[in-house]
Amino acid sequence: MNLHNPLPQNLEQFMQDPFRLGVVFTHPTQHHAPLWRKLNEQPGVSVTALYLCNENQVSGDRHLGSSQPWDVDLLSGYQNEFLKTLTGKIASKSSKGLLNPELFSRLTRKNVDAVFLPSFYTLSYRLTVLLCKLRGIPIIMQNDATIITDTPYSRSRKVILSALYPWMYSLADYWISSGDHNEIYLRYYGVSDEKIVRGCYPVDRERYELKIAQNQDEIQRIRQQLCWDSDTILYGFTGKYIERKNPFEFIEAIAKAHQQDHRIRGIMIGGGVLEGEINQRLAAMNGEVINVGFVNQSQLPLYYAAMDVFVSTSKSDPHPLVISEAMAAACPAILSDRCGNWGYSDTVQHRYNGLVYPYGNINALAEAILALADTQTRHVYSENAKTFFSQQDLNCELKAFLTVIDKINKKQNVNENIRIQDTLPQILEQNSTPIK
Prior knowledge:
Blueprint (H helix, E strand, L loop, with lengths): L8 H8 L2 E7 L7 H8 L4 E7 L27 E4 L20 H4 L7 E4 L5 H13 L3 E3 L5 H4 L4 H15 L4 E4 L2 H9 L7 E3 L6 H9 L2 H11 L6 E8 L6 H14 L3 E8 L3 H9 L5 E5 L6 H7 L2 E4 L8 H8 L4 E4 L17 E4 L4 H10 L3 H15 L4 H38 L5
Parallel strand pairs: 1-2, 1-4, 2-3, 4-5, 5-6, 6-7, 8-9, 8-11, 9-10, 11-12, 12-13
Helix pairs in contact: 2-16, 9-12, 10-14
C-alpha cells in the first residue's frame, strides 16, 4: 500500500467528486437560468440542464403575441443541452406531449446524483420520474400550485385529485416549497414536513438592481413618456392579456379611481389574445389607461422602476412572478386574493409591503389604488417591499437547493459508508502492495 496516499484511488474519487445535479426543464426561462448559473458556481456542485424545447430562444412567447426571443443570456455559466424529440428534431414550443427519448441515456447514475423537475405536466417529465425511480436517482421537485388555483375545479375532479396527487407527490424525495400557500398545498396532498425545504420562486434581484442603478436617466425618460406630468401616479399591469389574468378589472378600477384622483394613470405591458378588445376599450377612454405592449426582458426592470405601484388582478394565479419582479424594483403591489403570493411570510404581506383585495370586487380594488396614491404610505410600502424581497430572491432559492443537496449527500454518504465497510477488505487487497 502507498503510505503517502493510504486511501484507494476509487475511494478518493468518491470523496472528491462534485454533486451532479441534472435539471429537466421545458425550456430556458429568465427566472431559472440565473439559478442554474449561480448553483453551478458553488463549490462541489455541477449543474446540467436538459431542455425539452428551445422556446424563447428562437421565437417569442406565443401567449404574449410576440415573435421576439428573450434578449437576456439564459445559457451561459452552466452545462445545458436541448434534447431532440421522437422526430429527431428539437421542438420549438413546450407542450404536454413533449417526449424526448434521449433522457434514457442522460439520466443514469453515471451522469447525475439527483434530478430536479418542476412538474408531471409533459410526457418527458413523467418519463424522468420513471427513470429516476427505476435507477435509484433522488428526485427534487418544486411547483407553485396552491389550493386557491384548485378552487375552480369540479367536485368530481377534486375527488380524483385527492386520490391521485398524494401518490404522485410521494414519488419525489424532496420538495422545495415556493410560499405559504404552496406549503399548505403540499401538506394537503400528503407531503411530509421531512421532505419539504422552504424556498421561493426565483427572480434575479441582482440583475434588476444593477440594471436600474445604471439606467436612471432612461427610467426618467420612460416616466416622462408615460406620465401626464410630474404629479402622475403610475399603476402598472404586466403579463399575458388572457382571461385568467383578468386585465379588464385593472382597467375599470383605474378608471374608477381616476374619477376621485386625477393623478392616477394605468399602464399595461404585455400582449395576448385579448389585446384587440383591450385596445377597443382604451380607445373609448380619455387616457386613464394606456397599452405599452410587449417589452423584452432586458428593458423590463426599467419599466417596473418607472411604476409607482404594481397591480395583479388574476382570477387564478398560483404565484405570479411579475409581482416578485416588481418588488425587486422596490415597487409595492396590489393583488387579488386569487394570487398565491400573499401570506404571513410570503412575498406580499397585507398592509406591510402591499395590499390584497377580493377578486372581482372593482370597488375594493379602486379603494386599494386610492390608498396607495398617498405618498407616505406608498414610500413605506416601497421600502418594505425592497427589504423583504431581499429574503425572497435568487439567494433564497439557492440556499434551499444547497440544503436539499446536503440532505442527499448525507443520506448517500451513510449508504456509501455501509457499502464501503462491506467491501473495504476487497478494496484494500486489490490496491495493496508489499511493504519493503
